Every structure is written in structure tokens, then in C-alpha cells.
Amino acid sequence: MPVFQYRGFSAAQLPVKGTIAAESPRQARDQLRGQGVTVKSIAEDSATRSDVGGWSLSRFLASRRARAQWSGGAHELSMLLRAGIPLLESLDTLAAQHGGGFRTAIMGVRDRVAAGSSLADAMSQRPDVFDVASIRLVEVGENAGTLEAVLEQLAEYKQRLSQLGDKVLTALLYPIFLAVFGLAATIFLMTWVLPPLLENLQETVPVLPWPTRVAKGLSDLLVGYGIWIALVAAVLVGISAMYFRSATGRRWLHGVALRLPIVGPMLVKQNVSRISMIIGLLARSGLPLTSAVQLAAASTQNVVIRDALHRTHDDIVAGEDIADSLAKSHVFPPLAVRVFSVGQDSGKLDEMLTRLGDDYNQQLAVSSARLTALIEPVLILVLAMFVGFLLVATILPILQAGNLQ
User: Fold this and answer.
1) Is residue 284 within 8 Å of 146, Cβ to Cβ?
2) pLDDT in tens, the chain (405 residues)
């Protein structure tokens, strides 16, 4: 059901604004009129339109911010419900506590709950804010009458997940920035600084030294064919992006990423840590293992690991042991497979998976720090060698010209 933002005046002629869920603007106006609100303007909330499939940077960033706010919002909602505050009033308080897209999403959820929907059904209308695991857990909590406890567990899981973060990407951000900055500086030196300098030196020295000739050749190539090189690079990047967005390309890219020497094991640990936390949380909430594995697969970004979880789900349904199925995929580390096996046999699967997720989280933090410490000096050394080469290529003909005089 769409959500509309409105502005108007209350029965006491005080300015009011908010959101309301309705099938159409006319129905929204009728509902507001029944509440004594004189509508001045009403428009469908852009974050909840049916064309959410259209990607935009602002919508993506707003969705990321709202998802991050839900981590704290789950804890706040649990605290309000534990205090005995009714669900609708708790949602009103939660909306007043936050702003932006998250407030809009909570107000839409509140209006749908007021119209008779369950909290889980209302949240499912905003998949850009509420993930599948959250919706399923809320549904379990509503059916079992333990919504407050489930929300508290969900908030704890979200906190652990935020601590895990994307440590691999974070570790690579500075080296990537350093590489891009170094490439930009190189292009600037080769196209703006060296050409006039080498031209003057060539008039002075009859035969340039070989480092100078190499530098001049690269400089002439960039100056003469720089636009064509940029166009070819842009076309190749576009074709690669289209291929990697396809199912085949994404599967190939994710598979290669998992097999990389240093980054690959880190990606495996990151995904296994997330999966362990999700399955552990869902199992603790009383969800069947098959459903927990299915929801963990839906929450996994890596296609190779997601496919392995889907096969594991099918194997469990067929009666196979989860550890044997995970071992067959050749994706999960032996430690993770062993923890699944022992946890299922001992009846403490949720506890052991939570410990596994925490352990991999700590290992990932150490590996990320080591990766950053390794890449940074290597890049700095490469840049220093290149700048030194350009410096030698410039100084040698100057010295040679001085000797000729």
C-alpha cells in the first residue's frame, strides 16, 4: 500500500504534517478528513513509490542510512514495548525519535498497523529498509507473543553485524585512494610537466639518455592518443560493468574473489561470520533450521556462497546432515563445518554459531589491519620508484648538457 506525505491544518487550525497509508490520494484525503485534518497538500512518498526498482544515488544512500538506523530502532522499540507502551504509541515515539527516510518508513509501518496489518506485514512493504531476517523474526515474535524479546535479540544481532561491518572494503579503501591519486598525479606529470621540459632538453642534448627516451615515449603516447585511450578504457569499463551485473558475470567475479590469495580468505570469513550470526539468531528464536538457512541465503551478497546455502537447504529438506552438505560445497572452512556438526549434535547450535561469528569477526579485524599495513608501503614504494624514474629521466639530460658546455 502506498504511503503519502501530507500537510494541512488540524481541527484546532494548527499546522500538521505527516504520512498516511492509503490506496490512492483520494482515499488518503478522505481518511484525513475523517480525522479532522484539512489537507493543504498531499503527495506520494518518493521512497515508497512502486518504481523503487529505478536506481538513484540519493535513494540508495537514503536506504543505507535508514537500514543503519533500524539497528538502534529495534532496541528502542523493544524498550518501549517492555515498558508497557502499546505498539502504535511505540511506533509514534520511534518516528519522533528519528528523521529522514527511516522516520518515513516507521510512519508508513505505523499507518499500516493501525489499518489492521501485522507489524511483520507492514515492515515487508519496505524491503529497502527492513531486511528479510528482521521481518521473519518479528513475525515469529508476534506469533509467539514474545515480540519484545525477539526485538532485543534482533538489536543485539544488528549491533554485532555493525561491528563486523565491511572490514575488507574498509581495509582496501586507503590503498585504492592512494592508487587513484598516484595515477592522476602520473597523468598530470606526463601530459603537462614533462612535454615542455623534454622538448627544451632535446634541443640542447643531441642524444637523450634511455630513461629520458622512455619517459618521452610515454609522454608522447598520452599527449597524442590520450583521448582515444580514455575512450577505450571507458568502453571496456562499461562492458565489464554490464557483464558483471549479469548473473553469469557476477557468479564468475564472486568466485574469483573468493580464490584470491589474501582477500579471498577474508571474504570467506566475513560471509561465514554473517551467516553464523543470522542462523544462530534465528535458531535461538525457535525458527526451523531449514528456514534459518534459507533466510541466511537471502541475506548473503556473494552469489557462490548463496548458491551453496540454497543447496544446503535442499539437502536438509531431503534429510541430509547440514555439516555434510556444507562440506560438499567446498566453500565453507573446515572449522565452520565442524562447528555446525557439533552444535547440531549437542543442541547448542545457536550458542556455538554466535561464538563462531565473534571469533571470525576478531580474525577479520586482525587480517584487515595486516592487509592495510602490507599494501600501503608497497604502493608508496611503487609510486616513489616511478617518481624517482621521472626525476632521473629529467636530471640526466641536464647533467649531460652541462658536460657538453
Assistant:
1) no
2) 566 778 888 877 888 877 776 667 777 788 888 888 888 888 776 555 544 444 455 666 777 788 888 888 888 998 999 999 999 999 989 988 888 788 888 988 988 888 888 999 999 888 888 888 888 888 888 888 888 888 888 888 887 777 666 677 777 787 888 888 888 888 888 888 888 877 777 777 778 888 888 888 888 888 888 899 999 999 999 999 999 989 899 999 999 999 998 889 989 998 999 899 889 888 888 888 898 898 888 888 899 999 999 999 999 999 888 889 999 888 999 999 999 999 888 888 888 998 998 899 888 888 888 888 888 888 888 888 888 888 888 888 888 776 655
**Is the whole-model pTM more than 0.70?**
yes
DSSP code at position 287: -
User: Could you tell me the three cell numbers for 242?
Assistant: 554490464
Assess contact for 34 and 25: CB atoms under 8 A. Answer: no
- Secondary structure (DSSP) of 208-276: --HHHHHHHHHHHHHHHHHHHHHHHHHHHHHHHHHHHHSHHHHHHHHHHHHHSTTHHHHHHHHHHHHHH
Contact present, 302 and 271 (Cβ < 8 Å): yes
Mutual orientation of helices 194-204 and 210-245 as an angle, nearest 10°? 150
Q: 214 is written with which cell numbers?
A: 622512455
CA distance 302 to 300: 6
Q: C-alpha distances in angstroms, 225 versus 87, 217, 219, 230, 275?
A: 66, 12, 10, 9, 49
Question: What is the DSSP-derived secondary structure letter of residue 363?
Answer: H
Residues contacting 142, CB < 8 A, separation 6+: 118, 119, 120
Question: CB atoms < 10 A from the CB of 307, how many?
Answer: 17
- Alpha-carbon separation of residue 294 from 237, 308, 317, 367, 390 (angstroms): 34, 11, 11, 29, 56
Q: At 15, list the grid cell.
A: 499546522
- Which of 64-94 are b and which e, b meaning 16 or more Cβ less than 10 Å from the residue's Cβ? eebbebbbbbbbbbbbbbeeeeebeebbbeb
Specify the length of the chain in residues.
Answer: 405
Taking CA atoms, 214 is separated from 192, 223, 401, in Å, by: 16, 14, 18
